[in-house]
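Sequence only, no structure available. Ideas?
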Amino acid sequence: MPKKRRRHFLKEKESKQFLLEVTKTLGTDIEQLVGSKPRIEADETENAEVFLFNGKPLLARADGHLFPTLSFEELFRLMPRIVVDMGAVPYVCKGADVMAPGVVTVNGEFKENSVLLITDERHGKPLAVGAALFSSEDMKAVSRGKTVKTLHFVGDKLWNYLKGS
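Reply:
I predicted one. Tokens follow.
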């Protein structure tokens, strides 16, 4: 039996706390991108809690991780990212974690557990959002094993939900 969905607007106090959490987690002042007093709506789906800012699904929380959705293009230019080779693309697009041999470039400074954008080397298109398993310096030195845990990717259930809304 599917979980009953709940959709509601955050109260002003909840919104302020949430915006502080987002700023801390993503390392950027989210209000510069969405305005100073956005209307934030939480939509609890089967797989994640999606946060809509002025009607746009920009953030999500799943398995304890808060991350931008792949529709939050305004934030992408500010985020640290890793570029993967074209051989890794089909695996990342199926939800696989990023392995060190597939990483071509590490852009930006970040710490372990930071949220990253994962793009392909040919077109620079966003494929996924993940959590770093190493800092940027350590990731450049790693030559084998997992480097990024994938949180949200093109074609996952959250992606399909966003395309339908």
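The radius of gyration is 16 Å.
Hope that gets you unstuck.
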